[in-house]
Predict the 3D structure of the following.
Amino acid sequence: MKVKKYIAPTMPEAMQQIRKELGSNAVILNSKEVSKGGFFGILKKKHIEVVAALDPSPLASKARDSAQQHVSVHKGADGNDRQSDVLSEIKQLKQMFLSTNQSNGHYPPAYQIMFHYLRDQDVSPEICTSLIETVLSEHPDETDERIVYRYVKQALTEQLQQHSFGQMYFDKKVIHFVGPTGVGKTTTLAKIAAKAMIGHNKKVAFITVDTYRIAAIDQLKTYARILNVPIEVAYDIEQYRHAVERFKDYDLIFVDTAGRNFQSERYVKELTNSIDFNDNIDTFLVLSMTAKSQDMLNVHDQFNHLPIKGLIFTKVDETRQYGGLLNMTLSNNRSSIAYMTNGQDVPDDLIEPTPEYLAGLIMEGFHNG
């Protein structure tokens, strides 16, 4: 038996090397993530280490030859029955092999490639395992990775269809935009405000309580001037309430809040001291797709005690890893996704996501990598 270890940036690249050197009959014995490169241990990159083997006289071939001999020797009036028994035994051995692989955390090659692709997309191990095992249980004999891709994409779409997506319905007068610093809250607010004005004929006003950065106030004032809407700056909760009262005759009041490190609970408490949260107000949490998936989950958890209506993901065009979307959506007790943004243009670059769109976004890199 010829055994060789391969290291590549991704599982598909490792499989290409294996096919080139060992052929299509090679078997994956083990695979794991490893760190490689860097300078004095810094800036190391994740790679996939795969151990593959090729037996010049594979057991399966021997078993097949033996089975054929067994059938030919005993062939007679009951030859068909004996052949059927042999094929049944071979099928049972195959199922035992698949079960052993799965119990050790490994899958058949086509499924293993898909598992590593999803992990490269930053999809959580739990969701990866659930998707792969769902498809594998329905299609245990599939070996073509292109067909596995289609099955996984379909399964992913079906899982996402069980969750809510969609735009704001503008049924509440006051709409807050909260989120960490640098995620693009102000630009996102302007895009959605323009959509409300142009697409829904709403009369709109702005309030900003982001008094930590002068640039933030100036940016919102610029958008207010372009859209020809009034704006108020509120330095405390009383001024915020006065501004809301001043705009009581408007259809919608969009409120821009300060970007802070919301992984810290004290900043969330500060936020509750500067704006109101009640049943007549919708609050949307704005997150950047360039952030780590776990960081997004941590920020969302800090807002668990507040009535977050939905999520808005920005900077979709600045990354090629979209697993965070899936982790936020399929994890328990997460909010729905209202909008996504993929650029700076106002009022354009605003996406209303669907399960089909999200599944396509996550899976599109499989054939482009």
